[in-house]
Amino acid sequence: MQPLPTRNWEDILGKIDRRLVYIGLFLFTLAPLVGRWALPLNTTEPTKMLKKAFDGLPQDKVVLIASDWDAGTQAESRPQLTAVVRYLLRKKLKFILFSVTTPTSPQLGQTVVERAIEAEGMKDTWQYGTHWANMGYRIANAPWLRNFARSIQDAMKNDWKGVPLAKLDVTRGVDKFGPEGQVSMLVDVTGSSSIDNWYAYLSPSKVTIGLACTGVMAPEQYPFLDSGQLSGLLTGMKGAAEFEQLTEQKGFALAAMAGQSFAHLYIFIMLVLGNLSVILGTMKKRARG
Amino acid sequence: MILGLINPLTGTDDIWIVGDPWYRLIIFCLLAALLCTVVLGAIHMAGNQATRLLVMGCAFAAGLFYVLEFFIPPDAKSQEVSLWGVNLTQMSGIIGNANQVVAGFTFLLGVYNLVHIHGNNIRRLRKGWGYSLSFFIAFLAMTVSAFARDWQSFFDPKYDELKNTAGYQLWMPSWVNDVDPTHALMPHDIFSVLFEGFYRNMDATMFSILAFYIVSAAYRAFRIRSKEAAVLMITAVIMMMGQVPLGQAITAAIPKDGFWHGLRIEEISQFVLNTINGPVQRAIGFGLGLGALGMALRIWLSLERGTYFEETS
Amino acid sequence: MSWETAVLWIGAFSTLALYSVLYKENPVYRVAEHVFLGIATGYGLFVVWKDVLYPMWYKPFIVERQWAWIFALVAGLMYYTVYSKKLAWMSRVIMTTMMGLAAGLAFREFFGAWVPQIGKSFKPLYVSVNNEAGQFDLAQTIISSATNIIFVAVLICVMAYFFFSFEHKNRVAKGSAYMGRWLMMICFGAMFGSTIMARMSLFIGRLDFLFRDWIPLIK
After folding, report:
1. What is the pLDDT of residue B3?
2. Do A219 and C196 touch (CB under 8 A)?
3. pLDDT-based confidence at residue A245 (cuts at 50, 70, 90)
4. Where would you tag: which of A166, A287, B252, C176 has the fewest CB atoms within 10 A of its CB?
5. What is the mean pLDDT of residues B6-23?
6. Per the domain annotation, does A4 fall within a domain?
7. Could you tell me if residue A169 is inside a domain?
8. Is residue C181 within 8 Å of C160, Cβ to Cβ?
């Protein structure tokens, strides 16, 4: 009978079964959510900037919301869109939804807006067609985007149910971006790189551009924040949580921040454990000469 | 004559074709098909050199249009660009919308590829053909239920006018198209089951699996074997901790308004994002932007070589 | 069982079927994966018709009888010749035309997105800041000036790293390019940290669905 191999610390630390690692993540993340551990969250400057941008918008113009996310990033994008829409509702700012990157987005966005209206208790006062609309999906190719930046009416023509834009109060006459136009701001709630289109085609029109993107994309947007091409930024679920806190909303993102915290802590622990096993192994080799 | 041809695309002018009977549309379609067949057939007969020239000419002409539209100064009042009496700005609208339609047709190309691959799997009973069958069942279920739900809105000429009036007969039963306003958030039809039940959850789950893989990668693969890796990891940890409440609690003892507030972890992470990450991203972006411009020039002037610009057959 | 509950259970089952791959590759996962692909393709097809082809092609062409839209169909069909060796040139004509259009727009895109960035890179290296009372604020002046100096220095260092027009023999060029490399590591670290945050958020979203909507553990 062969002797059992002796397990040392570097083996124990370095060869944890991946399924155990997964279970650890599951428990670490779930526990604070179930326990409803609330922790104070700091609000960053880009989030404050976005709120400030909304606060300065005129009532007689509309806000265009490019809802460019699909269910894959809904954990980040959905609370962002909810928080933004709820704030616009409170400010009584009319808005129009559309999408240029993900075909599923108009359907998902529609549900988000309907629920936000219900959450704000404005079901009877905030009507589709009069105060808000959904223009549906178009394919983002460069020539069409150029036309969209030139004339919204010509590029869009109708809403997602096929109703001509001229027949809806909120979209009638909405054609141009910028100070001379009828659109005061474009907010891109996105899980893709759709914002690049708006930098390229809408920046020259001087329209205010806001962004709510996933955490992955956020670092790439800081040069645009610095240059003023971007008026505010929500970074992933954390950005949504900050916006909820700033505008005193009771939403999903803020409640989820405890889970997010412990998930990060868990990754940190796993990083340390993985490297510790290497360090212990190296020390052992050196000790043996 | 040329404007007469283009006008029907805009739909804004008084068009002599609008409202015409069906047979005239069909005649025009046949004439157009004949014209296209003759023109394309002639080019085909002309051989490889002619088609190559056509490919290059089309790329150049297409690019030139938008180059002119950008570089020619617009009219001060209308902000529109004209050249020899042709309004390029308005023409860009027609091209943009036509482009959208052509791009729409290409989507079917992707669908065709998928159907072709999975169809072959089933036809030849390749290993895992059952999975291809499940693809087809799901594809057909979604396509049929979605089209059936909105069929009336597409093909009933009276739909827009009468949809909200009492007594307007719906073509589909409620399990195909539920219009009950009390079910607005979750219509009780097949489409909603597929979209809200399957699609939305599956898409979200697919992406969330990455969370497990990233933990696994952090544990197994992210080894600090160099100084660069150490810098990368330290920054990543500062970012991870500086963005969440638990991490922010580490330095919460430092007063927010005090002299040392810059040492709070959220301040450090914000400093890294603004002052280090910002200019690095900008420098990389300049490179990417110039690279994209260079690439565009190569395509426009047909200097690019490869599949599209060389005859391969 | 209500309609909503049924949809909820379908969602939970779909989620667990896909998560089963975390244990190991299995047929349930593979079926779920293909069902997802099928539904997504079907929905994409529907939306392209509903939001693009129906309002922008079918309606003007068939309903409003703007006959010239027939050429858009011809152009679209030209893509499909890619499957024929003899007629593939037609697909190349339409593809290069589309690429040419996009290439022509690249100038507008560059000037729209990147030219404002060039202007904003020339930051003042000394920024005089006054406090709320209108008096000179030394601490804020130092912080603001230092921030701008660091910003410009980082930008120059990283650009130097990517500058290959001459060899980095000069000490200044060599040093700044070397610094640029380290600064990029910091940037990549920030991106990695942000990526982790994003991925964890997606997982939390699923936990919220499973343990709030399906099994009400999270209150």
Report:
1. 42
2. no
3. very high
4. A287
5. 49
6. no
7. yes
8. no
Instruction: Give percent above pLDDT 90 in chain A.
Output: 80
Q: Is the pLDDT of residue B11 over 60?
A: no
Q: What pTM was computed for the model?
A: 0.91
Average pLDDT (B72-77) is 87
pLDDT for residue B205? 96
- The neighbour count for residue A123, using CB atoms within 10 Å, is 12
Prediction ipTM score: 0.91
For residue A200, the domain's CATH number is 3.40.50
Check pLDDT > 60 for residue B136.
yes
Q: How far apart are CA A227 and CA A245, in angstroms?
A: 27
User: Is A108 within 8 Å of A71 (Cβ atoms)?
Assistant: yes
Partner residue opposite B99 with nearest CB, options A144, A151, A222: A144
pLDDT (mean) for A206-232: 95
| Distance spanning both ends of chain B, measured CA to CA | 38
Residue A2, domain member (yes or no): no
Average pLDDT in the B173-192 region?
Answer: 86
Whether A80 and A204 share a structural domain: yes
Measure the CA–CA gap between A280 and A265, rounded to whole angstroms.
Answer: 22
Name chain A's partners: 3 or more CB pairs within 8 A. Answer: B, C
Domain span at A177:
45-250
Tell me the angle at which helices C171-208 and C138-161 cross, rounded to the nearest 10 degrees: 100
Residues of B whose CB is below 8 A from C48 = 104, 107-108
Distance between CA atoms of residues B103 and B60, nearest Å:
20
User: Domain for residue A233, yes or no?
Assistant: yes
| Chains near B (3 or more Cβ pairs under 8 Å) | A, C
Domain boundaries, chain C: 123-219
Write out the H or E segment, with its range, that includes residue A189.
strand A183-190
List, in order, residues 6 or more apart from C80 with CB less than 8 Å away.
B109, B112, C91
